[in-house]
C-alpha cells in the first residue's frame, strides 16, 4: 500500500513537472518591436497570427528531462566530438549539430559523419534527440499560447560544450562565447529559444551562469554596456525558454572550471525557414555554418 501511494505521488509529480502549461517559473515582458505583431514594427516579416508573440517573456521548467535522458544526450555530444576530432576534442567552446553532422571548435569546422562506414548513433539515440526536440517545441508553443503546429523547428541547433582549461585562449571571434547578445539580432527568423541544460552549475562546472541583461548606456569606445537583470543557474534537466527578440538580451558567463553542456534550439514562425529533423547520420551541407571573418582579439 505504501508502495502504491509512493508510486502514485511520484506519477503526480512527474505529470506536473512535464505539463507544458505549468512552468516552474514564468515572467511576462513587453515585446520589443522585433515582431510583426508589435507596435512600431519596422521589419519585413509578414505577421503569422497564432505564432508571433503578442506577450513576451521567459519560462523555466525544472526536471524537464530525466537524468537518464540528459546523460544520453551528453554522451551523444561526446561521441560526435570524438568522431570528428578524436579523443576528447578541444578545450573552450565546441558546438555539435547532431542533425547536420557539423561541429565547430577553436580549430574550425569538421563533420562527424565524414567518411563513416558505420552509424555513429543508434536508432534509440536519434529517437531520444528527435523526441526531445519535439517536446521542447510543443512546450514552447503551449507555454506562449501558440496555435497547434507552432512554433516551427529551424536550423541550426546544437549542443554546446564549454570546457575549461587554464591555458586556453580564444583563437577567433567564434570562441568568444560570453558576449551579451539578442538571438534575433544574429538570426532574424529566430522567434523563440529553448535551452535544455545537460550539466549542473557547481557540480559539473563552476562559472557559466546564464544571465538576462539590460542595456545600460555605452562606454568610452561607444560599445554597449549591460547590467544584470536576472541570473539563472544551469541545472541538468532544466529547460529555459524565452522569446528571441530585444526584450531578452542575455549572455553566458565564462566557465571557470569543469565542463558545461547545453542543448540549444531555436524556433521560428516563418514556414520558409522550416527545417527537417533529418537525424539520419548524413551530412547536410546546405546548413553548413557560414565562414565568417576572424578579427584579431
Ligand atoms: C540588437 O539590435 C537592436 C536593433 O538594431 C539594437 O538596438 C540593440 O542594441 C542590439 N542588441 C545587442 C545586444 O547587440
Please explain how this structure is put together.
The chain has 297 residues and is an alpha+beta fold. The chain has one domain: q2cbj1_9rhob like domain (Jelly Rolls). It contains 4 helices and 14 strands. Strands 1, 2, 3, 4, 5, 6, 7, 8, 9, 12 and 14 form an 11-stranded antiparallel β-sheet that branches. A 3-stranded antiparallel β-sheet has the order 11-10-13, with no helix packed on it. A hairpin with a 5-residue loop joins strand 3 (92-96) and strand 4 (102-105). The model is unreliable at 1-17 and 288-297 (pLDDT under 50). Bound molecules: 2-acetamido-2-deoxy-beta-D-glucopyranose (NAG). This is Fe2OG dioxygenase domain-containing protein. Residues 1-17 form the signal peptide. Its cofactor is L-ascorbate. It comes from Tetraparma gracilis. Residues 156-269 form the Fe2OG dioxygenase domain.
Portion in helices: 10-25%
Rg, please?
Answer: 19 Å
CATH superfamily: q2cbj1_9rhob like domain
Strand content: 25-35%
Q: Quick one: CATH class?
A: Mainly Beta
Report how far apart the termini are.
Answer: 65 Å
Characterize the largest beta sheet: strand count, sense, and whether it forms a barrel: 11 strands, antiparallel
What structural class should be given to the helix and strand makeup?
A: alpha+beta
Amino acid at each position: 500500500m505504501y508502495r502504491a501511494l509512493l508510486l502514485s505521488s511520484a506519477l503526480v509529480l512527474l505529470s506536473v513537472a512535464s505539463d507544458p502549461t505549468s512552468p516552474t517559473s514564468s515572467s511576462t515582458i513587453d515585446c520589443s518591436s522585433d515582431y510583426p505583431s508589435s507596435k512600431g514594427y519596422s521589419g519585413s516579416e509578414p505577421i503569422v497570427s497564432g505564432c508571433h508573440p503578442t506577450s513576451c517573456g521567459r519560462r523555466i521548467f525544472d526536471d524537464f528531462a530525466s537524468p537518464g535522458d540528459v546523460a544520453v544526450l551528453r554522451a551523444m555530444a561526446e561521441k560526435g566530438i570524438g568522431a570528428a576530432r578524436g579523443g576528447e576534442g578541444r578545450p573552450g567552446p565546441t558546438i555539435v549539430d547532431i542533425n547536420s553532422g557539423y561541429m565547430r571548435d577553436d580549430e574550425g569546422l569538421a563533420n562527424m559523419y565524414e567518411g563513416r562506414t558505420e552509424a555513429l548513433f543508434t536508432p534509440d539515440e536519434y529517437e531520444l534527440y528527435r523526441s526531445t526536440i519535439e517536446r521542447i517545441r510543443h512546450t514552447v508553443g503551449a507555454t506562449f499560447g501558440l496555435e497547434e503546429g507552432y512554433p516551427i523547428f529551424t536550423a541550426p541547433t546544437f549542443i554546446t560544450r564549454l570546457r575549461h582549461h587554464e591555458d586556453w585562449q580564444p583563437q577567433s571571434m567564434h570562441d568568444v562565447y560570453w558576449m551579451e547578445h539578442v538571438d534575433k539580432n544574429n538570426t532574424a527568423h529566430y522567434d523563440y529559444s529553448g535551452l535544455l541544460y545537460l550539466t549542473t552549475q557547481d557540480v559539473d562546472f563552476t562559472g557559466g551562469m546564464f544571465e538576462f541583461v539590460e542595456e545600460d548606456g555605452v562606454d568610452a569606445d561607444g560599445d554597449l554596456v549591460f547590467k544584470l537583470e536576472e541570473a539563472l543557474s544551469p541545472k541538468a534537466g532544466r529547460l529555459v525558454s524565452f522569446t528571441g527578440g530585444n526584450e531578452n538580451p542575455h549572455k553566458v558567463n565564462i566557465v571557470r572550471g569543469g565542463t558545461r553542456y547545453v542543448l540549444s534550439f531555436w524556433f521560428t514562425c516563418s514556414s520558409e525557414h522550416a527545417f527537417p529533423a533529418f537525424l539520419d547520420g548524413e551530412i547536410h551541407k546546405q546548413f553548413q555554418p557560414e565562414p565568417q571573418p576572424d578579427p584579431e582579439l
